[in-house]
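Fold sample X.
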Amino acid sequence: MRRIVSAYISRKWWYKWIRSLSWFSFRYYWFVWLSFISACILLVYLIKKPIYQEECSTKVIEASIKEINLRLNKCCNCSSQQDSIIDDTQASPPSPPNTIQCDGNNNISDNGGNVTPDPKYFEVGNKSGTIKLCYDNGNTFPDNIIIKHNGQIIMQTGQVIGDKCIDIPYVYHSGDPTYVEVIVQPSSDIQTKWNYKLGCPN
């Protein structure tokens, strides 16, 4: 029985491979030891060698500094850049001739004739606020009073009669005119009468 098993095992490939390896190790034992020692040395070398070794060199830094200095030299100096900065504060256009001060005591009136008067200009300054308009258009013939600033209508009474005081919002932006324009559109009747006065922004 043992002979049969031994004969069966001797025919297996793994058995033949083990016997060949044993014979090779016995016959060339010096090569086995040399391979083992070489593998140990290689393993120790790989363990001790760092994965990434950073090179400490100042050449790259010096080149970067030189490039930055060249770019800075091509730029304008700080003083010229500061001089070229545009001031956000823009100058207002000059007021028209014969501009009236908005002191609240300027009484502008017309006693008839059905003639559209020339626009009046009132100096109101560069401070936003509320302008008070007081008018009296009489009790018979309606008149319209229009107030413009920077070419835009900011208030108009419409064709009305009677007397009244109105608060008008006045908003000033840099570069805007410091005056307002007042236009009166009188009634079509020749006997129309009106008067008004304009205060300063509060």
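Fold sample Y, listed below.
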Amino acid sequence: MLKDISFGQYYPTGSILHRLDPRVKLLIMLAYVILIFFVKSYIGYILFALMVISTALIARIPLKSLFRSVKAVIFLVLFITIINVFFYKGEGEALWSWWKLAVYVDGLVFASKMALRLILLVLGPALLTYTTTPMELTNAIESLLSPLKLIKFPVHDLAVIMSIAMRMIPTLMDETDRITLAQKARGADLDTGNIFKRIKAMVPILVPLFVCAFRRADELALALESRCYDATPNRTTYRVLKLKGRDFLFLIMFLVFMAAVILDVALPIYYPCDATWIEGFYDNAFFSLFGL
């Protein structure tokens, strides 16, 4: 499961997306996350899915590796989908009911849209980390927050903290895998039993993991101190971020995509692939199943 977490992992291919200004990619991703919460129709989700897939193809990132990141949240997606299907009170008659549980057409539509939204929310940031190194993200955040220096906000300190945190994510995941394999080699049972037994079985993994994390933090602090590192003074960067023509091109392309999504949200267009389509599909499947 930990290997499926894509945040903090970088997939170098040398594509044009990898060479984009990290500030542009970060702003596009923030707008992507905000826009997806306003989508109400399946057409809007199809637009987002096409954008993610086309971006992955341009970046030459295997779709299998990209969609593998969804495994980390598949339990959450299934849980939220089941809750919405059985407890969402829609209009009209229920398709199926038992005790206090009922399935409505509106519930099926709402649950499917919530599942699509969660999956797309995972794929977008995963694509960002696949095409941007942690150091580039740190420099982008520091550059975007630089106006806060006027009010004496420690922007560089925050950037350093975020850089160290993102660099530690893959390291801690590898350390967790090693500890898990070591505990299994000693006879630890981590895969069987009920949920309480599995939580109790995680203690032999979490304790050495925390010890390892604190030890690495202490070693890093000593290394920074021995090199007289101080984040407070004004420091220069090895690579100065500058916008180029390809950055403006991708910004324009994303603005066109934003306009399409806003148009889909603003116009009161009814799509037959919503409630009526699902209700008809359910009826046809029901009657076909019983030969009626």
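Sample Y note: The chain has two domains: 2-150+241-289, 155-231.
Also: The beta strands are 96-98, 101-103.
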